[in-house]
Amino acid sequence: MRYAMVIDTLKCVGCSDCVVACQTENNVPIGYCRDWITETVNGAYPNIELELKSERCNHCENAPCVRCCPTGASHIIDGGIVLVTPNECIGCGACIESCPYDARYQHPDGYVDKCTFCHHRLEKGQLPACVSVCPTKCMYFGDLDNPNSEVSKLLKNRKYKTLAPEAGTKPHVYYLI
Amino acid sequence: MQEELFTSGRNIPNIDPSLEVWHWPISVYLFLGGLAAGILLFAGVITILGKDKEYPTTVKYASMVPPIALTLGLLALVYDLTNPLYTWQLYTTIRLESPMSWGAWVLLVTTPLSFLWVFSYFSELFPKWNLRFDFLKTFMKFLKRNRKNMAYALVPLSIILGVYTGILLSAFNARPLWNNAILGPLFLTSGLSTGAATIILLAKTAKERHLFSKIDLALIIIELGLIVHMLMGMYAGSQVQLDAMNLLIGGEFTLMFFGFVVILGLIIPGILEALEIKGYKVPVAIPAILVLIGGLIFRFVMVEAGQLTRYLY
Asked: Listed GO molecular functions (chain A) (predicted)?
């Protein structure tokens, strides 16, 4: 089992529905967010290109946050999901410093918090909140170890990229381009 | 041209617009930890060489600094945690891949050892202070007998502590300014240099002052070499490393780095110490204090500038 998220940048309109769904589902404190939308503009007018991306924790295979955590609060569970155990976290910030994606933050209650791929929903057989609400259906979620899953097929047939692969983290959120 | 912005709104405290998770306590700790490691290493080496009678300041008086410095440093570290009540979780596990876990364990051993070291000299440091209880006197005599054994433990521990202050930062590959292998030796050298400067400040005999002026001068030269290596490594690196280097050379940290760390904190004290060794009359407090201030500012520059650097995508 290797969970992965595939996001079609050609279909994303940047409506931020995934962001609000996550904040609601996971009780994210006001002013914080576990996922966010970036708008990247490449080139100069009139040769201009726009790319919209919904970004979050990449649930890296070689997760620097897990490596740097001094207490083991950051850990990887079945399916490759990177999680933080709140009452093992001392709030030292080492994982935040080590994340190339700035995907983690210090929760007002002290521990470090981040995207969990909604593993509490996955256990019930539901999709992550962000994926389930996307109005353009540009987000896909599934198992990469299963060659017949939707995500495996998309990555086989479409061109894709990951964020900052040069950081050596082997991220598992893929962007179709 | 590439321009990226958050359209969903994202303004997380300490993360946006630029990372500021580690504040001044971390810089202060890195300084105090390096300084303590320096003094402890010198005290240990001099004791092992059997020269402790010749250099009393190093083994006795200056050794009162590390326990205080480490205690203050540890308090600073805990102050910067956002979940400090769970600090004990550090000691429920040993994580070899996490530099911070190494540091936590080394501090757990080194801090008490530095207190015991000073206590073994208690009757010489405070001759008028009468230890009321017999068991304390027995314990002190026991420590005195085992001083050399403590020194054997202190040497490797203080080297790990000194290197750790640098490795802590260099283990984060997400921060290109920190992510270079030279940071460990660089912070160790800088820590030893501030330790030597403290001993120079406290030294009572010209012999001890001269020895540590020579040691400090050598360390300053090594440190300048390591800084050049660090910048050359970044200069030959990828775009993110070039951006990191530009913060120090021609960026917002240039004045702090070159003015206060390299020139005022290394080159000028180096020249003054060389003159002093040659026999010119130089008040040794000046280079020593400059080295200490330079070391402190160096930590601040590295911690703050490092958090501004990141991968671009």
From this structure: 4 iron, 4 sulfur cluster binding; metal ion binding
Task: Name every chain B residue with its beta carbon within 8 A of the beta carbon of A43.
Answer: 1
How many structural domains is chain A composed of?
A: 1
Closest partner residue to A71 (CB to CB) among B13, B93, B172 is B93
> What's the mean pLDDT in B56-71?
93
The count of other CB atoms within 10 Å of the CB of residue A126 is 12
Q: Which of B29, B40, B35, B64 is nearest to B153 (CA)?
A: B40
**Cβ atoms within 10 Å of A72's Cβ, excluding its own:** 18
CA angle, residues B51, B53, B55, in degrees to nearest 5:
70
Name the band, by pLDDT with cuts 50, 70 and 90, for residue B166. Answer: very high
Contact between residue A163 and residue B313 where contact means Cβ atoms under 8 Å apart? yes
Can you tell me the distance from the alpha carbon of B219 to that of A3, in angstroms, rounded to the nearest whole number? 51
Domain spans in chain B, listed from the N-terminal domain onward: 24-308
CB-CB under 8 Å, A44 with B104: no
pLDDT for the residue B134: 87
SS3 category, A75: strand
Q: Which amino acid type is present at position B260?
A: F
Token pair 């998770």 in the structure block, residue:
B21
Q: B-contacting residues of A 17-56, CB under 8 Å?
A: 19, 31-33, 35-44, 52
Are B95 and A71 in contact (CB < 8 Å)? yes
B121, B122, B127, B131: CA torsion to nearest 10: -140
Interchain pair A90, B310: CB under 8 A? no
Write the CATH number for A60: 3.30.70.20
Query: Cβ–Cβ of A19/B8 closer than 8 Å?
Result: yes
pLDDT grade for B174, boundaries at 50, 70 and 90: very high
- Asked whether residue B311 carries a pLDDT value surpassing 90, the answer given is no
Print the domain residue range for A78: 3-176
Q: Is B11–A31 a contact, with Cβ atoms under 8 angstroms apart?
A: yes
Cβ contact (<8 Å) for A42 and B90?
no
Position B17 scores a pLDDT of: 84
Which residue is closest to A107 within chain B, CA to CA? B82
| CATH number attached to the domain at B24-308 | 1.20.1630.10
Please report which confidence band the pLDDT of residue B235 belongs to, taking 50, 70 and 90 as the band edges: very high
Q: Which residue of A has its CA nearest to B78?
A: A92
User: What is the pLDDT averaged over residues B124-147?
Assistant: 88
Query: From the CA of A91, how many Å to the nearest CA of chain B?
Result: 5
Minimum CA–CA partner of A43 in chain B = B1
Q: Which residues contact A125 (CB under 8 A, 6 or more apart)?
A: none
Q: Measured between beta carbons, which residues in chain A are less than 8 angstroms from residue B171?
A: 67-68, 98
